[in-house]
Specification:
Structural class: mainly alpha
Order of helices and strands: HHHHHHH
CATH architecture: Up-down Bundle
Number of strands: 0
Oligomer: single chain
CATH topology: AhpD-like
Shape: globular
Low-confidence stretches: none
Radius of gyration: 15 Å
Number of helices: 7
Largest sheet: none
Helix content: 55-70%
CATH superfamily: AhpD-like
Mean pLDDT: 92
Strand content: under 5%
Distance between the termini: 32 Å
């Protein structure tokens, strides 16, 4: 499978990608626990069917020390025992925030209450932006058919500035 277009080979796309990366960097530097970042991004990417993003977030999480068991169970987090209540709240928010078109209510009050119970305001802000950004990245990957399998951890760390 070949991508429809190489977004990193286009000058305008590279400018936009740097801004996108800088927003992501601000989220990474937030007080939201790092384990939550990759779990949330992996789950949204699975739902959206973005092969590149699933590859990216699986490998980044593994490189950061996430266990294979937890990575394999993200797709079935409700039916597993390896996630904390706080992680479950974040995964639920990620799912509801990703499936907006599938649900008449968007993010439920129950899910929001669970998120408020486990995270402070800055962490919630980071989590909301994280869900929005990963969904945007997923859409980019799916639209241009960017395949998974070639990502190497740390590949994009030089994009900032």
């Amino acid at each position: 499978m070949e991508p429809r277009i190489d977004l990193m080979a286009n000058e305008l796309s590279t400018k936009i990608a740097k801004r996108f990366y800088n927003v992501s960097l601000a989220i990474q530097q937030s007080p939201l626990p790092k384990a939550i970042h990759e779990l949330v991004m992996l789950r949204a990417s699975q739902i959206n069917g973005c092969g590149f993003c699933v590859d990216f977030h699986t490998k980044e999480a593994a490189a950061a020390g996430e266990t294979a068991v937890r990575l394999h169970l993200v797709a079935a987090w409700r039916e597993s025992t390896v996630f904390t209540k706080a992680e479950r709240a974040a995964l639920e928010l990620a799912e509801e925030g990703t499936r907006l078109a599938d649900a008449h209510h968007g993010v439920s009050d129950e899910t929001w209450a669970q998120v408020r119970k486990h995270y402070d305001e800055d962490q919630i802000v980071a989590l909301v932006y994280l869900v929005a950004m990963v969904n945007a990245a997923n859409r980019l990957g799916v639209i241009v058919r960017n395949p998974g399998g070639s990502y190497e951890p740390g590949m994009f760390t030089s994009m900032s500035s």
